[in-house]
Amino acid sequence: MKQLGLGIIGLGVGRGALLLNEDPESPIAVRAVADLDSERLEQATSEYGVAFATTDYRELLARPDVDVVGVFTPDHLHAEHLPATLEAGKHVICTKPLLTTLDDCDNVVGLVRRTGLKFVVAQTWRFIPHIIAVKQAVDDGRIGRISLIETGYIHDLRGVCEKTPWRVTAPQNFLFGGGAHAIDCLRWFAGNVSEVSAFAMNSGVIPGYPIEDIWILNLIFESGALGRVLVMCGSVNNRSEGLAGGNKHLQIYGTEGTITGIDIGVDGTPQHSNLEVQPPQVAGALIEGPAAGLVPHFSKMADWIKNDETPDPDVVEGARGIAVAVAAQESLKTGRVVKVRNDF
Ligand SMILES: NC(=O)c1ccc[n+]([C@@H]2O[C@H](COP(=O)([O-])OP(=O)(O)OC[C@H]3O[C@@H](n4cnc5c(N)ncnc54)[C@H](O)[C@@H]3O)[C@@H](O)[C@H]2O)c1
Description:
This protein is of the alpha/beta class.
């Protein structure tokens, strides 16, 4: 099959895709990039051989050699960039959070249905080796039926906010920005969420950050299982360094066993050997940082297109995750338990 052409809009975390150009066997390669930052554009062309670079993303969308577009712009711009990309006839890989309102979700879900294009939400936790191992154990029935599941996005974001000031000025809503990881993780394991109640506050730890940076969500799933999500971005000297760093805890209590932290204790026996999963690589080299979770989405997209399969998580799964955060916002505002919309 001929190599697919990829365009990337937004070269912050999105520049991880450039690693694809180091692998001649990759089914997809970056042919065009768009960003407002000329240094980032220059790096893509000079170091990774990207042929076309522009500050106007519409020029990228107009290119016939671009089949798939990665949207990696700040959260609040996805509502503009996703419809424009689909209307230009390109398949989409969108970073999290997909969007931040239900109206925007309806618009994008409608466009995906109308165009028949492939659309995946790049949820990088789904490629963390420890989480893959836990998922395998749960899918194999090792802990029975899930009765309670908990995770959190816990991150001292002060340094990140200094480097990416839009997070404070736009502002990024961390319930969506970081919470999207934790909410998607719980949905991946336990399915649709039916109701949410939430508390939140602003720690004052991140200079100038104007809205809540700590959230606690209590959930009930359609299965009857209970869940809890902690979004803690007002933490101090506490970095997110993978599940092993302890800041992305995942605890799952089932009817026949328990999984806590990185110890998979099934029937009371720690099962560290379950965690032996190959980390993602490009051309035989290990991938570091968030790119490790991003890069596999691009080669998978090539397969989904070739085999005409629905990507996972697709736009509907993405919208259902956003609906959990929207329900949490509503719960904070009203002080009530709020039903989650799942009918997209
Ligand atoms: N693990 C993950 O999945 C992960 C990690 C970090 C960020 N993200 C997400 O990625 C997105 C970007 O975050 P980031 O940390 O890379 O931010 P960033 O500020 O480092 O990068 C964003 C880039 O987009 C560019 N940009 C802004 N407006 C643009 C426009 N109109 N056209 C073209 N380019 C434009 C900026 O110049 C910048 O280079 C956010 O949605 C964020 O939530 C995901």
